[in-house]
Amino acid sequence: MPLEIKDGLCLRRIPLDHPPLTEAIANEVLELRPEAARRDPRMWMLAFADDGIIWGRVSDGTLRTSPDHGDWRCPRLRPRTLWRLHLFGESGELRMQRAGNEFRAEWLAEDADPEASYLDELRLLIGQEVPTPGEALPGPPEPDFVLARGMAGEIHTPPLSLPEMRRRSALRVRHFLHADPDTGMLRVHDTRIVGFC
Fold this sequence. Notes:
Elements: E1 6-16, H1 25-31, H2 35-38, E2 43-49, E3 52-59, E4 62-65, E5 82-89, E6 92-99, E7 102-124, E8 148-149, E9 155-156, H3 162-166, E10 170-179, E11 186-196
Antiparallel strand pairs: 1-7, 2-3, 2-5, 3-4, 5-6, 6-7, 7-10, 8-9, 10-11
């Protein structure tokens, strides 16, 4: 997909106050979303922790992560090992980042702005080793999460079906552009994850 600059959207950052995270982090993360995002039927999570990458998907108001599907090889979502978390969908992105012993959270929302420019980029998911047809998988017979192994040997379980992984899925990342007042050159001013494609 060629990169195409489009007009009409800008990104707004809304800082979020929240109590310290506990082991019930999945529920706490969902509560931080604005009301409009709670109605978003398709939201996913990507988290980076000391012990690996954790994927998740919001389904029926519940955040289900890869270990919830019975895959013992994927780390659990825990505050003590978490570094960064992205809960994303068309409605916006909740971003949490460790800052010492605390987490800073913000909601990234898009606003209409005829003067603003953006572009969408596809970032292929790393992982070429997915189960072959008939191979036994952890969890239900039609898995929501499929195991993938990256080139460095890391294991992660994106919240995709087997056919989606087989067609080489990608994250859609939206870059918001800003024109330099002196030169007019565009540069990436901000970025958020939008979804899968």
